[in-house]
Amino acid sequence: MSDIVTTDPRITDQIAANPVAATLTEEDGRWTLTMQRRLRHSPAKVWLLLTEPDQLVRWSPIVPDRAFDSVGPATARENPGDDDAVDAEVLAVDPPRELVHRWRADVLRWTLEPAGGGTLLTVHHTFADRARTGSYGAGWHICLGALAALDAHGFDNEDAPRRVVGGASLDYGWQDLHDAYAAALA
Length: 186
Known about the structure:
By secondary structure, the chain is of the alpha+beta class. It is 29% helix and 28% strand. The chain has helices at residues 9-17, 43-51, 53-56, 133-153, 174-184; strands spanning 23-27, 30-39, 63-64, 75-77, 86-87, 90-94, 98-103, 106-115, 118-127.
């Protein structure tokens, strides 16, 4: 019996190419995990990957019911049409520089800076339960790997890499990444 490959090497390459790297800060009893990725496309193009549902479904752990291009209420699902909706209100929008939205009680702030002809993308994930740090670090590492693979292989390519969510993340090293982030940010 032959081995069945269940992972996309374009994503595994991006995951492996980026070391376990993040900062964790505390303010007023809430924790902020901060991670960065360099992407080859301009902030204007990357902005679409952060705000448009048809792009978010290609890499993000959540897909909103509307574009994240204006302040106001929204809902999101991991698997549109299958999962229960989760509250995901957009709190601030400054295209193509900053997007702030809520995902349940957590707050995500995305900043985009021009960098060497591409973009330096920074995600600040603020949450209450410090014990979730390893899980969030591993999850974002994999999602950012999928985003970087999408960025590297073209947004419009039908054979572009697809997002990794749920149990599939285990095939991409989620447990090892969880342990590494938990140890690094202890």
